[in-house]
Every structure is written in structure tokens, then in C-alpha cells.
Design a protein that fits this description.
It is built from three helices and two strands, in the order H-H-H-E-E. Strand 1 and strand 2 (87-88) form a beta hairpin. It has a domain at 5-42: Orthogonal Bundle (Histone, subunit A), CATH 1.10.20. The chain has helices at residues 5-14, 21-42, 73-77, and strands at 83-84, 87-88. It is mainly alpha-helical and 95 residues long.
């Protein structure tokens, strides 16, 4: 697929970029390379492949769900200005 100078000017306008002629030519070349790579990837035979849920097949090692910290709520709330029934009371900000 060929990218024209008008295409590059349109894309640059959408991106609010001001490109020189050299930059426009380089951008057109880069776009053509990207589209060629996409065409190459589209031509690959993937009929025998199973879809993946993730690009890298890996497993997440899991650990036992064991409580390792003690509940320190009461000790921590002793230093708070106001608490009630385990909740921190703060001044009303919005009416």
C-alpha cells in the first residue's frame, strides 16, 4: 500500500504536527514499512493455532491464603482524633 503526501499531511493535521518535507517523506516511509509488516503478518497461516488468552503463556504461582498480620485497628485508632465503631470520623467537607 502506498502512502501519499496528502495522507501524511492529513495525519499530521489530525495530530496537530507541523512537518517539514523531509519529515513527511520519512513518515511516509515509516508508514509504508509498518503496513508492509502488517501485510506480512496477515499472510501467516494461523489456522492450526489455538487462540491464547495472553501473549506469553505463563502461570501465576499461588501461595497459601494465610493471615500473617495481626489486627491492629484498636491500637491505631487510639491516636486518631475521633473514632466511632471502628470508623474514623472526619469533618464534613461537602454540604
Amino acid at each position: 500500500m502506498s502512502i501519499s503526501a496528502d495522507d501524511i499531511a492529513y495525519i499530521a493535521n489530525l495530530a496537530r504536527l507541523q512537518l517539514s518535507e523531509a519529515e513527511k517523506q520519512k513518515a511516509a516511509h515509516n508508514f509504508e514499512n509498518i503496513l508492509a509488516l502488517i501485510d506480512q503478518m496477515q499472510s501467516a497461516d494461523t489456522d492450526q493455532l489455538e487462540p491464547l488468552s495472553h501473549a506469553i503463556e505463563t502461570s501465576q504461582p499461588l501461595r497459601e491464603d494465610i493471615v500473617t498480620e495481626q489486627n491492629q485497628r484498636d491500637e491505631l485508632q487510639k491516636i486518631a482524633p475521633k473514632c466511632e465503631k471502628g470508623l474514623y470520623l472526619v469533618p464534613k467537607v461537602l454540604e
